[in-house]
Model the fold of this input.
Amino acid sequence: MVIARRVARLVFVVFVVTFLTFFLLDRAPGDPAELKAGLNATPEVVAEIRAELGLDDPLFVRYLDWLAGAIRLDFGESLVTEGFTSWDLIREALPKTLELMILAELMAIGIAVPLAIAAARRPGGVLDRVTSAGAFGLLALPSFVLGIYLSYVVGVQLGWLPTIVDDLPGLNDDPLENLRQMFLPSLTLALALVAVYLRLLRSDLIDTLQQDYVMLAQARGLSERRILWRHALRPSSLNLTTAIGLNVAGLIGGAFIIEVLFAINGMGRLTILRVAQEDFPVVTAVVALLTVAYVTVNFIVDLLYRVIDPRIRDGVA
Amino acid sequence: MASPDMSATDQPSPPVSRSTSVFRLAFGPVVWLSIFWIALLVFAAVFRDVLPLRDPDELGIRTREVEKFESPGWNAFFGGDSQGRDVFSRVVWGARPALILGVSATVIAALVGSIVGMAAGYLRGRVDLVTSVLIDIALAFPVLVLLITVRASFGNSMFVFVILFSVTGIPPYARIVRGATLSLAEREFVDAAAALGANRRRIVLRELAPNIALPVLSFAFIGFAIVIVAEGGLAFIGLSLDEITWGKLISEGTGDIQNAAHVALLPATTMFLTILAFNLLGDAIRSIVAPRQVLTQRQLSVDGERPDTAPTEVESNGTAPHEDRRVLDIVDLHTKLHTPLGDVRAVDGVTLHVDRGEALGIVGESGSGKTMLLRSIVGTFALADVSRSGTVDVAGVDMLRADPATVRHALGTRIGMVSQDPLTALNPVRRIETQLVEPMRVHLGLDKAAARARVIELLRSVGLPDPERRLRAYPHELSGGMRQRVTIAMALVNDPELLLADEPTTALDVTVQRQLLELLGELRRERTMSMVLVTHDLAVVKGYTDRVAIMYGGRVVESGPTESLFAQPRHRYTVALMQSVPDLSLPSHSELEVIDGLPPSLVDPPAGCRFAARCSSATDICRTDTPVREHVDSSHWFRCHHPVEPGELASVPVQIAETSS
Done:
C-alpha cells in the first residue's frame, strides 16, 4: 500500500518534470522545422516539415505523442544528425556516464565508510578531527576546482595518470586501460560525495555506539572491529542510504562537468552540444531519462530501507 | 583548513551564559579570517574601477606589458593568460558579478523559501502536501539541466541568472523554515495564548521571526557558496554570463593546465577560499543556534598498579579465604568519568565479593552508582572517558589489567549480562539466531550447526515457546517478556559462572517480572551460577538473593546476609529505602520518591557521610568524618555514625516480607 502510493507519486514527478522540460524547450528560440529544413529552404518547405513533425498541434497533444513514443524509447529523430534517432545518440554516450557515476559512487562509499567508522570509534580524537576538517574542506571544493587540483598534482606534476580521457576503450575490451583513464574523473566526482557521506555516517554511528545493544555486545567480549562492522554499521546506515539516493541528481550534474573537464564523450557533453545546436528532441530525451533514473534510484533506496531495517518493513518504529 | 569543529571541541567546558561565551566559542581566528576574506571581496567588488589595476581585457601580447603565460610575480601577481591578460585584474574583476549574483539570488531564495516554508508549516494539511510534492519535483529535476534549458530560452543576462539561481535555491530554505514553524506551532503556549483570545497567526509570526532568523541566516551563507559553485559549473560547460566571472576564468585556463597551470589554479583557489569562507561563517552562525556537543573521547584506562594486597578476605566470616570459591572479587574499586564538568566519581572505593553459586543484591536509588559498578566490572561505557583503579577479578582473571584478548575471552565465557530494557538490549536489525550464535562461534569456535542446536536447547530452557521458529525472527517481532527471555538466553549462551543483571525486570509488568525472577533463580541453581542482581526494589532482593549490598553516593554503606539485613537494618539509608518500598497497589517499578532530596553530586561529593544531607539523624560529625565500617557480626557491616538501634523500627522488615511473598 505504502509502496503503491510511493510509486504513484514518483510517476507523477516524472510526468511533471518531462512536461516542464517539453514546455520550456518549446518556448526556446529556434524553430525545429527551420533547423531541419536547412538554410535555403522556402517557407513552403518549412511549413510542410512543420506539419510532418506535428508542430502545429497544441502543446499538450504533442507532449502525449512524445510520451507514447518515449515509453518505447522512441524519442524521435535528431534534428541535426541525419539518420540518427535521439536514442542512437544516447546509447552511444550513456555507458560512459553510467560508468563514471557508478565508479564514483563505489569509490565514495569505499572511502567514506571505513573513515567514518574509524572516526566514530573515538569521537573528538585526532583521526576524527582530521577527517572532520578534511570533509569540511572538501565541501568547499567544487568538482571542477578539485578536478583541476587533482589533474595538476597527479596528472601534471607526478605524471601518474592521464588528465584527459582519450579514445576510451570499452570496459570489456581493455578493462585496465579503461579504469586507468576513468580513475581521476571518478575520484574527482567521488570526493565531493565522500564529505557528505562521511559526516552523515559518522554522526549516526556515534549515536548507535551509545545504544544498549552495543554496550551488551561489548560485554559479551566481542572485538571492537566486529562490533563496528557487524553490529553498528547497518543500523547506522539509513541516513546514508537516503543521501545516496538524493545525491543522484547532484551526481548527474557533477558528471556533466567532469565530462567536460576530462573530455569524456558521455551524456553531459552530448547534452551541452545538442543544446548549443538546438537539437531539442535529444535534449528532451536526455532529461526524461535522467529524471526516470533519479526517481528509480530513490525508489530503490526506499525499498533498501526495508532490507536494512526490518522494523520499517513491518511498519514498526 | 581548520574548521570550527576543532575550536569547539577544544573548549574545556560547555558554555554557561549563552550570549557571551558561545560567541567566543564560534568565532575563533579561522572565522575572523573568513570575515576578513569576505570584506576583501566586497572591497574589490566595489572599488575595482578605481584600484590601480590593469584593464582586465587588455591584451598583453599586444601592449607587451604582460607576456603570454607569464609566471606569477611582481609584474603581474597572478601571471598572464594565453593572451597576456593580467590574471590578477581578471580575478578582481570577477568579484563583482560573484557578489551581485550570490547576494541577490540568496536574498530572493531565502525570502520566498521562508514564506513557502511558513505557509506549509503553519497551515499544514493540503498546503504542506503540495509543498512537499513540489519540493520532490524540484529535487528530482537535474538542476544543471534546468539551467541549460532556461538559459537557452531566455539568454544569459544577469537578470536571468539571478532568477534561475533564486528559483533553484528555494527548496532548502522552505524545508528549514517549515521544520521550525511546525515545531513552534505544536508548542502548547501557542494554543494557550490562542485560547485566551490572542490572534494565533500573530503569535506564531512574532515567535517565529527570532526562531528562524539564525538558521536561515546560517544557511544563507552556505547558499551563497552554492550559487558561486553553480555559476562556476555553468561557466565550465560554456554557459556563463557575458562578464568576466571566476567560473569563466577557471574554464578558460583548464586547457593550459599542462604548460601554464597558474592560469586555472589561481582563480580556482580564489573560488575555493571564497566558498570556504562563506561555509565557515555559516557554520559558525549555526553553532550559535545549536551549540555543538562537546564530545569526550571514548577512552578506558586503568590508574595505578595492581595493589600488592589484592584480593584479601576482608569480609571473611572466620573461615580461611578460598580463592577457588570466589567468582567475583572487587577490592577498592574507583571509577571516574572524566567530563567537561569535572570528574564524576561514580564508584568510590567499593570492595565486595561473590562466591560460587551465590546471589548478591545491590540496591540503591538511581544515581547511587550501582549500574556504574556493573559496567566497571565489564568495562563498557557508552561515550565516556573513564578511568578505573583497584582490582576486579572474575574467576581469577584481572579484568582491569589483563591483556584485551584475555579480558574479552573472560567476558565471553565467564560473565553473562542482562540489562534493564529488553527493547534496547537486542540489535534491531539482526536475527535472533545471528545474535545468539555469535558468542559461541567467536569464543568457543563452534560450527554453525552445533551452535544452533545449543541455542535451541537454551531457548527452550528459558521458556521460549517454539524456539526453532523464533530463531528466524527479528527482535521487534517478539513481545517484551519473550525478548527478555531471549536476552537472558543470550547472557547464558556460553555457560557463564557469573550473571550480572541490571534491573532485569524493571521494564516489564508485574506478572512477567515474577516469572522471570523465578526463572533466573532456577537457572542459577541448575548451573551453580553466581549472580549480581542490581535493583532499586528491595522486595526483589528479599526473595532472590543470599546477600545484599546497599549503595549510596558511589559507596557501599551497608552489607550483609539478606535475612540479617532485613531483620536488623543498621544504616539510616537502608531503613529509609525499606520505608519507601512502593505500595502494593502501585506498579512496582515506580521510582522511589519518598526520601526527600536527591543523591549527592558525584562530581564534588560532600565530605563525611554522603547521606548526611538527607538524614534526619545527621549531626556535625556526619558532615566531616567518613564513617568507618562497623560489624554487626562477621558478615554484616555498615558505615553510619548514628546507626539504627535494634528495636527502634521493628515494624519495617515485616512490611517488606509481605511485599515479596
Notes: The first helix of chain B runs from residue 4 to 10.
